[in-house]
Amino acid sequence: MTQPALSRLIGTMEQRLGQPLFERHSKGMALTAAGELLTPHARLLLFEMQQAVGEIDALRGLGTGRVRIGAVAAVTRTILPCAIAKLLDLAPALQVKVLDATDDQLVTALADREIDLMIAPPLAPHPDIWPIAECDDGDFYAVFAAAAHPLAAIGDVTMQQILSQSWAMPPAGGAPRMLFERRVTEAGGPLPHVGVETNSIGVMLACVAASRLLGWLPYPLLEGDIQRGAVVALRVPALTVERRFFVYSRRRGSLAPAARQLLAVLPLKAAIAPDDKPVGHQR
Question: In this structure, are residues 68 and 211 in contact, taking their beta carbons and an 8 Å threshold?
């Protein structure tokens, strides 16, 4: 649109709403309080229009469709690849976009409509998103060390033995680190020294494999390095923490056809009623 046409359109909207939507000043424009309130509704309307057009195009055979899925690292390496393979076998023209991120990053992406669905462990209640199904597969966190670490030759390792060591850990304040610290505190132990702090799983694995540091990650992320003989999982019952996974969507708006197709091929245990929520929050 040209600038005059856009100005007339904004003026018409403001006249119909009886409120100014922008403050005009010498350096440009800024949203008023009314404009701020209208913005999320406008984004939702635009998103729903795009979903409607996509569904109609798919019915006419004009569109290929797209699904945007976000998941925590372990899920992107276990549950998701098989589901995507099944989806593309059914609909080869679909495009799948995958976001591999932490719980908090996924929540933000889903609420901001950057992804259509997310798969994550149980989350604290959120005003904009909710769980719609539980996955049939889960995993567990495990303590790990270099294959040559002195503790690698021990059977059941005690909390006292591992908490006296230095660790490679994800950043403080994130869900995995908070869960680890809570389990250590519940077991009555002091928090250990963190020698390396990184949000990179690869860096964490490499540092542990090359040193006497200990680490704590979901077991599926360790399997490749365990098979190569770089690290071993230690048997520490108090820090062997099982995880369940749930599929989350936004509370408002509809799912695109491609997202519904993905749901149909995911290994799901049960659908969840809107008023239900997962128990055992891990935050």
Answer: no
pTM reported for the whole predicted model: 0.72
DSSP letter (8 states) at residue 92: T
Provide the CB-side half-sphere exposure for 73 (13 A, CA). 16
User: In terms of Cα–Cα distance, which of 135, 6, 20, 12 is closest to 75?
Assistant: 135
Give me the CATH number covering residue 168: 3.40.190.290
Asked if residue 182 is part of any domain, the answer here is yes
Q: Cα–Cα distances in Å, from 62 out to 24, 40, 55, 59, 135?
A: 42, 29, 10, 8, 32
From residue 106, give the alpha-carbon distance in Å to each of 13, 99, 112. 34, 8, 10
Interval 109-130: pLDDT, tens = 999 989 999 999 999 899 999 9
Read off the pLDDT of residues 57-103 as tens digits, 9 standing for 90 and up.
Answer: 665 543 457 889 999 999 999 999 999 999 998 888 888 999 999 89
Q: Are 99 and 69 in contact (CB under 8 A)?
A: yes
Find all residues with CB under 8 Å of 231, minimum gap 6, and list them: 144, 145, 146, 147, 205, 208, 209, 215, 222, 225
Structural domain of residue 174, as residue ranges? 139-242
Q: What angle do helix axes 79-90 and 257-265 make, rounded to 10 degrees?
A: 120
Pairing of strands 22-25, 28-31: antiparallel
